[in-house]
Every structure is written in C-alpha cells, then in structure tokens.
Amino acid sequence: MIALSILNRLWLAAITLFGVGVVVFVLLRVVPGDPIAMMISPGSTPEQIARMRAHYGLDGGIGSQFWVWLKALLTGDFGTSISLRRNVLELLGERLPATLELATAALVFAALLGGSVAIAGTMVRRTLLEPLIDAVNGTVLAVPDFVWALALVLVLGVFFPVFPLSGRIDPSLQADFATSFYLIESLVRLRPAQFADVAAHMAMPVLALGLPLAAIIARVLKETLLEAMVQDYILLAKLKGMSTLRLVLQEALRNAVGPTIALTGVQFTFLIGGTVIIERIFAYPGIGNMAIDAVINRDLPLIQGLVLVFGSLFIIINVLVDMLVAALNPRLRHG
Amino acid sequence: MGRSFRAALCDPKVIFGCGFILVLIVLAIFAPWIAPQDPLEQNLMLGTLPPAGFVDAEPGYWFGTDDLGRDVLSRLIYGSRIALTVAFIAAGLAALVGTTLGLLAGWYRGWVETVITRLVDIWMAFPPVLLSTLLVAVFGSGLHSVIAAIAIIDWTRFCRVVRSETMAQASMDYVTAARTIGFSRFRILVSEILPNVAPVLVALVSLEMGIAVIVEAILSFVGLSVSSDTPTWGGMIAQGRQIIYQGWWVMVAPLVMLLLTVLAFNQLGDGLRRALDPMMRR
After folding, report:
1. pTM for the whole thing?
2. Which CATH entry fits the domain spanning B2-281: 1.10.287.1490, 3.10.180.10, 3.90.180.10, 1.10.3720.10?
3. Which of B138, B141, B214, B249 to mutate: most A Cβ within 10 Å?
C-alpha cells in the first residue's frame, strides 16, 4: 500500500519534470534573437555558422529539435554553455554542492531557531513575554530576504566586520578539496581551519535565508502547539504531574510537528529560490549566482540546465516532504 | 461598506501605509522640483561625500554623493518613479487578469471553472524564481519585461481569492433577489458581485504592490531592469555594494527607502484586509 502510493508519487513527479522540460524547451525556442549570432566571431563563413548551428542542435524543425533535445538530456548531455564554453553538466556539478550546502544549512538553522522560539512562546503563553515574542517574530517576517542580506552586509560585514563579505572560502585555504562539498568534506576530513572558514563565509547568507523561514516556522508551530496544549491528553499528562517543558516537548510537539513540516517543505522551495539573489549579494559561487549570469548573457543551454536542476530540486523536496508527513502521521500511514 | 471604509481609515496601519505612499507619489510626480540636484549630473570633484552632519559633508548634498559625485537624495527621489510605476502597473495588470478569470470561474462554474482552476494549479506548480528567470531570459531585460514577468507570475494570487469570494457572494440573498427581478447573469456579476468583492481585492492589490517593488529592486540590483543610467533603488543598492567601504550611505539610503515602501504597502494591505474583510471582522 505504502509502496504503491510512493510509486504513484514518483510517477507524478516524473510527469511534472517532463512538463517543466517541455515548457523550458518551448520558451527558449521562442526567444527573440539568434543565440548563434552572439557566438560567431566577425567574418565567419556561412559554412562555419551552419556547422555551429548543427553542433548545438539548432538546425531542423521544432519537432526534430525536440527529439534531439530529449535524447541528449536522457543520455546526460546538457549541451555546452555559450558564455563559458564548457559542458553544462560539469558546470552544474561544480556549483550545485555549494547551493545544496547553503540551503541545507539555512533550513537547519531556521528549524532550530523557529522551533526554539515556538517552544519558548508556548512556555510563556498568556504572560507579557508572549506579545513581545510575537511582535519580534512579525517584524522578522515582514522584512524580505533581499533586505535582510543587505542589512547583514552593512552591520556584520562593514560596520562590525565579523564575517567575510563574499565568496565561499579564502583562496589560500582552497587547495586540495576532492569534492565540491567544502563544508562536509572539511568536517569529515577533520580540518578545523578550513571548516571554520567555510562556515564563516556561509554565516551571513544562511542568516539572510534562514531568518524569514525561522519566523514562519515559529508562528505556525506555536499556533499548533497552543492548540495541542488545550487537548484532553495534555490535561491528563498534567494531572500525572509532568512539567510544562516535558509536556510541550514530549506530548504536544509530537502532535503539532506534522503541519509544520508540510509548511516548511513548501517554504523550503521558496528558500531555494531565494538563493538566487542571496548568492549574488554575497558573491557565493552556487547555481543561483550562475543563473543570473546565464540570464544576463542569454546563455540558453546553461539556463535550460539550471531550470531543470532547480525544477528537479523542487520536485524532490515535495516528494520527500509528502513521505515524511505520511510517515509521521499515523492516520495517513494506513491510508 | 461605507462604514467599514471609514473604520479602515482609523486603523494606524492604514494611516502609516497611506501616508507614506502619498508622500512617495508626491515625490515621484514633482521630482524635478523637489530634488535638490540633477540626479544624473556627475561631479568627480564631489565624489563620495558623506551625508549632512558628518565631517567633510558639503551643504546641499543632504544624503551625500556616490563615487561619481551624483547626489544620493536626488537619485532616491527620482528612483521612486520607477518603483511606483512598477508597483501600480504590474500589480494592476496582475489584478486585472486574475480578477477577470476569478470572477468568471466563480460565477459561471462548469467547464469554465474547471479550465481556469486547472490553469491556476499548473501555474502555481512552477516556482516563481524559475518562471521569472525564464521570462526575463525570453523577453530580455528592461522595465517592460519586469512588469510583464510580475503580472504573468502573480495573477494566480488574485484569481484564487476572487474565485472563492465570488462563489461565497453568489450564494447570498441579494444575488437571488437580483435574479428574480430579471437582471442578466452578466449584469449581476459586474454591478452586484464585483463591488462586493472589491474590498478584498483592494487589500490584495496593496500587498501585491509591495511584492512588485521588491521584485523590481532585485532585478535592477542584478542589472536586468531599466538601463543603468535611470536612477533606481535597486541600481543604487548595487552601486553602493561595490563601494561599500568608501561610502556606506550610497547603499543605506535606498535600502531604507525600499524597506519603508514595502512595509507601507504591506501595512496598508494588512490593515485594509482586517477592516474590510467581513470574515475577519466577525
């Protein structure tokens, strides 16, 4: 039963991804302006232009272009970036780990901070502290991540230079990484200096991405916790003499966490969207930063690869969240 | 209706939001008369002057100058033109498309509703960042692309709310009454239901304007909005980011302005929704 519903979910995900691919294909074919025209050097012969057109699969009708395109994608051939003149799949492989580390760190930070604030808010409910927490939370929520990032640049980068302003790692420490997962690799290979430097470079982007999400998590989790706290089973546990903190952590949290995870999943996809501009502000070498350059340079093969990667990420997250919510909810488990 | 609008005007959120936006509109319209300097005039002798009150400040340059010696305050004032243009046109277009489709879906039901709600579902499955990246890549950079991208992405917000609101209104007695006295279906929709959906719509438009201002700032920050010789807040922020160690004020001024504008639109929308939404009033 469960296996069937997972298969069904994956099948739907595959269809969605195919749909995204078709939209990308169609949109990028109606782009005004000839991408080849931007790449040719002055004085190229018509034969050279035709050869280039064939190389990028741009000769032939739209139907045959689609089949060439689909076959290439399925064999892992994402084409060659026009502006960087390199294999798109390789470029994505180099940049994606940076974004994955950044987004995951922001998610963990947001979950820890938002969760703590929600629990603290539930503990102090109906006291003067509760409206204070709500007010701070509302303010954090009202400021967009773009503004957060720039405010952090000013305060923690310039006025009180605590964290480095841009990049991912100090160039002098960059040597001999086997993978592009700098944070994880430096941790696994026990290199504290590199780990600290990578973490310091990530601090401000993580704050900018994580703070608004933390505020959302705090608000929703606190609402569901407060609802749970007036249920009969809580009253029973209270009569048994459980402390309030244990009540919240052991009883209420277990029942309130489901809706929060469902919402966090949706918000996490927005956070990944937010990496595009945040990576730009901090000159962080991830796929978001690359996406902006790709659009500025009208690098169609690269844009296509990036959109497919972002689309796959969103779909994978949605599937994972659905499964997690189902696993945590006993009523759905046997459904 | 009249009473709830008057109640809305007493809401502090609405007062702050309305007041700030009115000031901004006046600044944008009368920019040539209000701005103390020419926003484009460069003067390398007066480069990176600090704001008034700091050592080395120059009289007449209240918020200082950027590295090319252009007056920050004047550029800020002129920048409100682009911000407000995008806010009003983009949010207006998104509202127009979304409201029309939402009204049709909620009122005519049947296959019209099926088609429109399917469309909304498909649209919303596409993450906004992907869609805007693709759209700007397709349209090319520039103000038109920014406005079109915002409208194309965000009409669904209006469509969903207006549809459910229309469905709620359609079951009311006044609609039955209008039908009994022989109003055509289209006339009931336009002259009876639309005015009752309007309050919710006004609040949504205000929130959407805040989103539009931020999106425009982000796109001009990365250089995908208007050309760089037109002063925009996003463009000023990008320039200030470059010279952050020499002149922090070049970035702070537009950043504060952007934040206040977004907050004003949000507060206005929030206050209006609270005052005008019959569900929340109860």
Report:
1. 0.86
2. 1.10.3720.10
3. B138
